[in-house]
Amino acid sequence: MSAPSTHGRAAARVLLLLLAALVLWTGAAGLGVTAVGDAHAQPAPGNPGATAKAPPRSATPAGKGNGDRDSKYGPPLKKRGGPIAGLFWGFAGLAVLGSLFVVTRRNLITAVMGMVGTFFAIAALYMMLYASFLAIIQMLVYAGAIMVLFVFVIMILNKPEDEPYGGPGKAGKILAGLAIAYLLFRIASVLLHPAPSGWGTERLDLALQHPAATAQGYVWGSTASVGWNLFNDYLFPFEAVSILLLMAVVGAIAIARPLKDDVVEGPATDDGAAAGASPGGHS
Amino acid sequence: MKSILIDIGYSHFLILAAVLFAIGTAGVILRRNILIIMMSIELQLNAANLTILTFARMHGDLSGHSFAMIVIAVAAAEVAVGLAIVVAIFRGRRHVDADRLNLLKH
Q1: N or C: which terminal CB in chain A sees fewer CB atoms within 10 Å?
Q2: What is the mean pLDDT of residues A188-205?
Q3: In this predicted complex, what is the ipTM?
Q4: Is B67's pLDDT higher than 50?
């Protein structure tokens, strides 16, 4: 291991502490804002005689404060928590844990797997926000294409100092078996019994009130509504993105293409001859 | 305190996006492997997308969805070019350590 600097590592620790403090402060500030908003909106509907009874009433769940606070922002959130709140916390925890895996793990494949978990959790959160089209795009593009690209590049690089990824333990095998069994069960159930009508919307209505349909009559957040918005209001950015993607494809091919004199002028000339003789021969 | 845990509001999504963005920033600053740095950048873009979609939901405006989709496309282009650069660097230098790539430093 080359020793870049010890004070660099100390500075990194200080930065990590600062960022952890920032995360904690952000979370505390957010919770404080929520609590203040509840306390601020709670005694508003009560008359002065009822203020003495305010503390026992504040213990009742699902206070009116949330509706008052959110009413100026579009449709209010429904006050039924329960399993949907548990879903939010579960996916939020999965996203945070996966991103912490990305930042902290040394094994690159482990980091990529944490990233995939984060992307799936974020797609689920998109679904809770009624962005169904964006959730599917998130799964296809991020968890599918981009992560596979990362895995390809990691396999190409084939870093020698990374220990080979060990097989899963007993718990991992049991979890994988359960996951595969559940997947097969779901596929079989879908193939045998088609879903009843209106199944998805009823389940999602428990969490948040469904937003109103768009002016064109499409379901909010669906593919049709996003497409209408994209091709009417944002047609020029869409075309610009298509040109950008074309340039990215051409540029990626032009950059990553092996040149004849690439290895010769590289600074690592000690093993450059071996690499020039057979590029990619190590793997 | 219990209502904070039970009643999920828009602020929860925004706080989660802020936390994810902070973790991505930590990854960009602290790690040396270029691949990890690029994954952290992807994490930051995702956090920004989550914020955009939360605001779109708050205001009932679908423009945020179009914007998030354009952000995803730009992120895909960035990843393609960035990984090509990583492969090109690795071909010549046999490492992708960001601290040792100081050729442009005079």
Answers
A1: N
A2: 54
A3: 0.91
A4: yes
- The pLDDT of A123-152, averaged and rounded, is 90
In whole angstroms, what is the distance from residue A127 CA to residue A276 CA? 50
CATH number for B2-100: choose from 2.60.120.560, 1.10.10.10, 3.30.360.10, 1.10.287.3510. Answer: 1.10.287.3510
Between CA B76 and CA B65 the distance in angstroms is 17
A218 touches chain B (CB under 8 A): no
Q: How far is CA A149 from CA A49, A110, B81, in A?
A: 65, 15, 11
Is residue B93 within 8 A of residue A268, CB to CB? The reply is: yes
**Looking at the complex, does the CB of residue B96 fall below 8 Å from at least one CB of chain A?**
yes
- Tell me which chain A residues have a C-beta less than 8 angstroms from the C-beta of B4: 31, 34-35
Measured in angstroms, the CA of A6 and the nearest CA of chain B are apart by 13
B36 has a pLDDT exceeding 80: yes
Instruction: Give which of B2, B3, B89 to mutate to test A binding, by max A Cβ within 10 Å.
Output: B3
Higher local confidence (pLDDT), A206 or B22: B22
- pLDDT score at A48: 40
Residue with tokens 């390809």: A152
pLDDT at A111 over 80: yes
User: What global pTM score does this model have?
Assistant: 0.66
B2 touches chain A (CB under 8 A): yes
B93 with A153: Cβ contact below 8 A: no
Calpha distance A4→A27 (Å, rounded): 34
CA A90 to chain centroid, in Å, comes to 13
Give the angle B97-B102-B104 at the CA atoms, nearest 5°: 140
Q: Is the pLDDT of residue A17 over 60?
A: yes
Q: How far apart are CA A245 and CA B5, in angstroms?
A: 42
The answer to whether residue B48 neighbours chain A at the CB level (below 8 Å) is no
Structure tokens of A259?
A: 């040149």
Rg of chain A (C-alpha set):
26
Encoded tokens for A62:
């699902």
